[in-house]
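#lab-general

N.A. 3:47 PM
ok so I finally got the sequence cleaned up, no stray characters, all 345 residues accounted for. can someone with queue access submit it? mine expired

B.Y. 3:52 PM
send it over

N.A. 3:53 PM
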Amino acid sequence: MKQWKSIVSKLVLVIFAGVLFFSGQTNTYAAAVGDQLTTQEAGWIRYDDTDVGLKYAGSWYKASNVGYYNGGMAVTGNATNGNTVSFTFYGTKLRVIADFYSSRHSNNTVTVDGVTETLSEYSASGGAVAIIYQKTDLPLGFHTVLIRSGNNRNTFTLDAIDIDETGYLINTNLTAPIDLSAAAAVEKIDLSWTAVTNAMSYNIKRSITNGGPYETIASNVTNATYTDINVTSDVKYYYVVSAVNAAGESISSNEASAIPMVAVVPDTGRALLTIYLINGAEKEYDLSITEVNAFIDWFDQKDAGVGPAKYALIKTWNKGPFTKRTEYVVFDKILTFNVDEYSAE
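B.Y. 4:20 PM
back already:
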């Protein structure tokens, strides 16, 4: 019994017009439409109704009250019809936070990515900072939202919106960076794009999957170029870039991809190549391992019937008065050859 009383004491139920509002939520509690949320739950991020990413059209005014989120909310005028608020966000889920009350319209609409649903704010008793709409099954990406006020009572309100904390609200005053390109280089990828007017910086995002999801690998990049050096050779990387200023982040650029090149490690080894001819003569050459491998490749190809009949070997020793000494060996005169490697260090 004591344990049950302890649990009950942590959970306060407030009833508005037959709707249960929960306070004292924990991180494991999943709120639903009708629940009162004075702040966002874990896994969500909240944007106030004053955020520049929210675009209002029609007749709106600011209502102030300590019971509202951040002390105020946006309200349409009495008997209005068709006032709208729109925004775009990146993520997978959305909550609209507002004020249930008896004077609120019940025939508002919300359109997400072209699909329209009815949105009611009516409640006989009321309740501030509550979830009036929720969508949690959206595919990861950019989503457009249009909320239109109804007209069957007095007002419609908007207090805040919540989206998943890994997403973000789009700053529609900034255009997306364009012409993003990714150029592969040795153990790095060089990115460049067209600078965006009014951008203060850029966020660089990367994925190993075409189309994302992307991870932000750099922020506060002030130039329209970036070099990604934290790469693995032979892995294909996909990039997008967004512009940022004091008002927020733009939509992402086009996607660009590249595969970093493998660094070629110089071969410092050397070897004595001894060629035995069918007439009993021997030819010895002091060569780099690269030069020896080139000779072996020629021999194998000629043995398969491909390539020139003779191979040129440059002698860098005993040059005497000559600027260059070249000796040719003929394939069908070679009986066998030896390679004796040694360290040049």
